[in-house]
Amino acid sequence: MAATAERISDTPASTPMPAPARRAAQPDDQIVQLEHTDWSDCERLLENRGESAVPRLTFIDGVLELMNPSR
Predict the structure, then answer these.
(1) Are 42 and 64 in contact, with CB atoms under 8 Å apart?
(2) 4 vs 69, residue with greater confidence
(3) ∠28-34-39 over CA atoms, to 5°?
(4) In the chain, what is the straight-line distance between the N-terminal and C-terminal CA atoms, in Å?
(5) Could you write out the DSSP letters of every residue in 1-55?
(6) What pTM did the predictor assign?
(7) Are the beta carbons of 38 and 15 closer than 8 angstroms?
(8) What are the φ and ψ backbone dihedral angles of 4, each rounded to 5 degrees?
(9) Segments making up each domain of the chain, as ranges
(10) Strand partners for 30
């Protein structure tokens, strides 16, 4: 456990996290990007979406992406 704590403390706080792996967009996917959004916008959409997995939502640096995958 101490070795893990040392490795974490050696990493600068400003080191960006890698983006999550995503499936490459397909030609038939429907994608909408909303710029200048905040996290509360994403939370409202997630609440409205409920238990459904569609549309898929991604929020990174103020850009909210909604994707309706073709498959």
Answers:
(1) yes
(2) 69
(3) 120
(4) 43
(5) -HHHHHHHHHS-TTPPPPPPP-PPPPTT-EEEEE-S--HHHHHHHHHHHTT---S
(6) 0.58
(7) no
(8) -65, -45
(9) 27-71
(10) 68
